[in-house]
Amino acid sequence: MKKVAFALIAALSALSVQAQQSGDMQIQAVMDACIALRDAAAAGDAAALRLSAQSLREAGVAHFDSLQCSDDSIGSLKGHLVFNEAFADSLAAGNAAIYDRADDMNTSKAHRGQTTDGSYLTKTCFVPAGKSTTWTFGSMGHQEVAVVAEAGGLVTLKIHVTNSGGLDRRYDDTKAVRRGMPQRKTSFELPTSRRNTVEVEIVNCGQKDCSFVVISN
Questions:
Q1: Sheet of 183-189, strands arranged across
Q2: For the segment 52-74, what is each residue's pLDDT rounded down to a tens digit?
Protein backbone atom coordinates (compact mmCIF):
# COMPACT_ATOMS: atom_id res chain seq x y z
CA MET A 1 0.00 0.00 0.00
CA LYS A 2 2.86 2.32 0.89
CA LYS A 3 4.47 1.58 -2.48
CA VAL A 4 1.25 2.48 -4.28
CA ALA A 5 0.92 5.71 -2.31
CA PHE A 6 4.53 6.62 -3.01
CA ALA A 7 4.10 5.91 -6.72
CA LEU A 8 0.96 8.04 -6.80
CA ILE A 9 2.69 10.94 -5.06
CA ALA A 10 5.65 10.66 -7.43
CA ALA A 11 3.35 10.66 -10.44
CA LEU A 12 1.44 13.71 -9.20
CA SER A 13 4.70 15.52 -8.50
CA ALA A 14 5.94 14.79 -11.99
CA LEU A 15 2.69 16.09 -13.48
CA SER A 16 2.96 19.22 -11.35
CA VAL A 17 6.49 19.91 -12.54
CA GLN A 18 5.47 19.30 -16.13
CA ALA A 19 2.51 21.67 -15.77
CA GLN A 20 4.75 24.39 -14.35
CA GLN A 21 7.25 23.97 -17.18
CA SER A 22 4.60 24.11 -19.90
CA GLY A 23 2.22 26.48 -18.16
CA ASP A 24 1.06 29.79 -19.55
CA MET A 25 3.28 32.81 -19.15
CA GLN A 26 2.16 36.16 -17.76
CA ILE A 27 1.84 37.53 -21.29
CA GLN A 28 -0.19 34.55 -22.56
CA ALA A 29 -3.50 36.45 -22.58
CA VAL A 30 -1.97 39.22 -24.70
CA MET A 31 -0.40 36.70 -27.04
CA ASP A 32 -3.71 34.86 -27.40
CA ALA A 33 -5.50 38.14 -28.15
CA CYS A 34 -2.96 39.00 -30.86
CA ILE A 35 -3.30 35.54 -32.41
CA ALA A 36 -7.09 35.93 -32.36
CA LEU A 37 -6.79 39.37 -33.96
CA ARG A 38 -4.55 37.97 -36.68
CA ASP A 39 -6.86 35.07 -37.46
CA ALA A 40 -10.02 37.22 -37.33
CA ALA A 41 -8.50 39.78 -39.70
CA ALA A 42 -7.54 37.06 -42.15
CA ALA A 43 -11.07 35.60 -42.00
CA GLY A 44 -12.81 38.99 -42.11
CA ASP A 45 -14.71 38.02 -38.96
CA ALA A 46 -16.07 41.27 -37.48
CA ALA A 47 -17.37 39.67 -34.27
CA ALA A 48 -14.03 37.97 -33.58
CA LEU A 49 -12.18 41.23 -34.30
CA ARG A 50 -14.28 43.05 -31.70
CA LEU A 51 -13.60 40.30 -29.18
CA SER A 52 -9.85 40.43 -29.79
CA ALA A 53 -9.89 44.22 -29.37
CA GLN A 54 -11.76 43.84 -26.09
CA SER A 55 -9.27 41.22 -24.91
CA LEU A 56 -6.39 43.61 -25.55
CA ARG A 57 -8.17 46.36 -23.61
CA GLU A 58 -8.81 44.05 -20.68
CA ALA A 59 -5.16 42.92 -20.65
CA GLY A 60 -4.07 46.54 -20.16
CA VAL A 61 -1.33 46.73 -22.78
CA ALA A 62 0.86 49.77 -23.41
CA HIS A 63 2.97 50.72 -26.40
CA PHE A 64 6.49 49.27 -26.21
CA ASP A 65 8.25 52.63 -26.57
CA SER A 66 11.58 51.38 -25.21
CA LEU A 67 11.83 48.75 -27.96
CA GLN A 68 14.13 50.35 -30.53
CA CYS A 69 15.30 49.10 -33.92
CA SER A 70 19.08 48.72 -34.04
CA ASP A 71 19.48 48.33 -37.81
CA ASP A 72 18.18 49.91 -41.03
CA SER A 73 15.41 47.38 -41.63
CA ILE A 74 12.47 49.59 -40.63
CA GLY A 75 9.92 49.61 -43.43
CA SER A 76 6.40 50.86 -43.96
CA LEU A 77 3.54 48.89 -42.44
CA LYS A 78 1.19 50.08 -45.17
CA GLY A 79 -0.93 47.14 -46.27
CA HIS A 80 -0.03 45.10 -43.22
CA LEU A 81 -1.78 44.23 -39.96
CA VAL A 82 -1.25 46.39 -36.89
CA PHE A 83 -1.72 44.52 -33.63
CA ASN A 84 -3.74 46.94 -31.52
CA GLU A 85 -7.36 47.36 -30.53
CA ALA A 86 -7.98 50.52 -32.54
CA PHE A 87 -6.91 48.78 -35.73
CA ALA A 88 -9.08 45.77 -34.87
CA ASP A 89 -12.06 48.02 -34.17
CA SER A 90 -11.63 49.74 -37.54
CA LEU A 91 -11.52 46.43 -39.37
CA ALA A 92 -14.58 45.21 -37.45
CA ALA A 93 -16.43 48.33 -38.61
CA GLY A 94 -15.68 47.40 -42.21
CA ASN A 95 -12.96 49.99 -42.73
CA ALA A 96 -10.58 47.96 -44.89
CA ALA A 97 -8.87 51.19 -46.00
CA ILE A 98 -7.29 51.31 -42.55
CA TYR A 99 -4.49 49.15 -43.95
CA ASP A 100 -3.34 52.20 -45.93
CA ARG A 101 -2.97 54.10 -42.64
CA ALA A 102 -1.14 51.32 -40.82
CA ASP A 103 1.91 53.45 -40.00
CA ASP A 104 -0.23 56.18 -38.42
CA MET A 105 -2.26 53.63 -36.47
CA ASN A 106 0.93 52.11 -35.09
CA THR A 107 2.55 55.36 -33.94
CA SER A 108 -0.34 57.55 -32.84
CA LYS A 109 -1.25 57.17 -29.16
CA ALA A 110 -4.75 58.37 -29.94
CA HIS A 111 -5.19 55.62 -32.51
CA ARG A 112 -3.58 52.90 -30.45
CA GLY A 113 -6.04 53.31 -27.64
CA GLN A 114 -3.54 51.70 -25.29
CA THR A 115 -2.96 52.88 -21.74
CA THR A 116 0.38 54.36 -20.74
CA ASP A 117 0.47 52.37 -17.50
CA GLY A 118 -0.26 48.94 -18.97
CA SER A 119 1.06 45.80 -17.40
CA TYR A 120 2.24 44.43 -20.73
CA LEU A 121 3.99 45.97 -23.73
CA THR A 122 3.35 45.53 -27.45
CA LYS A 123 4.78 47.00 -30.62
CA THR A 124 4.03 46.16 -34.24
CA CYS A 125 7.13 45.94 -36.42
CA PHE A 126 8.00 44.98 -40.00
CA VAL A 127 10.45 42.54 -41.58
CA PRO A 128 11.06 42.01 -45.32
CA ALA A 129 10.74 38.57 -46.91
CA GLY A 130 13.74 36.36 -46.21
CA LYS A 131 15.38 39.02 -44.05
CA SER A 132 15.77 39.74 -40.36
CA THR A 133 15.35 42.76 -38.13
CA THR A 134 16.92 43.44 -34.74
CA TRP A 135 15.39 45.37 -31.85
CA THR A 136 16.70 46.09 -28.36
CA PHE A 137 15.35 47.08 -24.96
CA GLY A 138 16.52 47.17 -21.35
CA SER A 139 15.23 44.79 -18.72
CA MET A 140 15.82 43.26 -15.28
CA GLY A 141 14.49 40.16 -13.49
CA HIS A 142 11.91 37.82 -15.01
CA GLN A 143 11.56 38.46 -18.74
CA GLU A 144 8.98 37.12 -21.16
CA VAL A 145 9.03 37.74 -24.90
CA ALA A 146 6.57 36.65 -27.57
CA VAL A 147 6.29 37.37 -31.28
CA VAL A 148 3.15 36.90 -33.38
CA ALA A 149 3.35 37.29 -37.15
CA GLU A 150 0.47 38.45 -39.34
CA ALA A 151 -1.43 35.84 -41.35
CA GLY A 152 0.88 33.77 -43.54
CA GLY A 153 4.00 34.95 -41.72
CA LEU A 154 6.60 32.48 -40.44
CA VAL A 155 9.27 33.74 -38.08
CA THR A 156 12.19 32.58 -35.98
CA LEU A 157 13.26 34.33 -32.78
CA LYS A 158 16.84 34.91 -31.65
CA ILE A 159 17.61 36.60 -28.34
CA HIS A 160 20.98 37.85 -27.10
CA VAL A 161 21.35 39.31 -23.60
CA THR A 162 24.35 41.31 -22.36
CA ASN A 163 25.21 43.66 -19.51
CA SER A 164 28.13 45.70 -18.19
CA GLY A 165 29.03 42.89 -15.77
CA GLY A 166 30.06 40.54 -18.57
CA LEU A 167 26.77 38.68 -19.04
CA ASP A 168 26.59 37.25 -22.56
CA ARG A 169 23.83 34.69 -23.10
CA ARG A 170 21.61 33.56 -25.92
CA TYR A 171 18.00 32.36 -25.83
CA ASP A 172 17.46 31.38 -29.46
CA ASP A 173 14.67 29.27 -30.93
CA THR A 174 15.62 25.64 -31.46
CA LYS A 175 12.41 24.40 -33.10
CA ALA A 176 11.72 24.75 -36.84
CA VAL A 177 14.27 27.54 -37.10
CA ARG A 178 14.57 27.35 -40.89
CA ARG A 179 10.88 26.85 -41.62
CA GLY A 180 9.69 29.35 -39.04
CA MET A 181 6.45 29.40 -37.05
CA PRO A 182 3.43 31.77 -36.95
CA GLN A 183 4.25 32.75 -33.36
CA ARG A 184 7.01 32.27 -30.82
CA LYS A 185 7.44 32.75 -27.08
CA THR A 186 10.12 32.34 -24.43
CA SER A 187 10.97 33.36 -20.89
CA PHE A 188 14.20 33.66 -18.90
CA GLU A 189 15.63 35.18 -15.76
CA LEU A 190 17.88 38.24 -15.85
CA PRO A 191 20.10 39.72 -13.13
CA THR A 192 18.34 42.27 -10.93
CA SER A 193 21.54 43.97 -9.78
CA ARG A 194 22.04 45.86 -13.02
CA ARG A 195 20.28 46.80 -16.25
CA ASN A 196 20.52 44.23 -19.05
CA THR A 197 20.30 44.81 -22.79
CA VAL A 198 17.99 42.38 -24.55
CA GLU A 199 18.57 42.11 -28.29
CA VAL A 200 15.69 40.50 -30.17
CA GLU A 201 16.26 39.37 -33.75
CA ILE A 202 13.22 38.29 -35.75
CA VAL A 203 13.92 36.32 -38.92
CA ASN A 204 11.27 36.24 -41.65
CA CYS A 205 11.41 32.68 -42.95
CA GLY A 206 8.63 33.30 -45.47
CA GLN A 207 8.58 34.59 -49.02
CA LYS A 208 6.47 37.67 -48.28
CA ASP A 209 7.06 40.81 -46.26
CA CYS A 210 5.17 40.67 -42.99
CA SER A 211 4.31 42.63 -39.89
CA PHE A 212 4.63 41.11 -36.43
CA VAL A 213 4.04 42.18 -32.86
CA VAL A 214 6.61 41.96 -30.10
CA ILE A 215 5.05 41.33 -26.67
CA SER A 216 6.83 41.78 -23.34
CA ASN A 217 5.96 41.73 -19.65
A1: 61-63, 120-127, 210-216, 142-149, 183-189
A2: 999 999 998 999 999 999 887 77
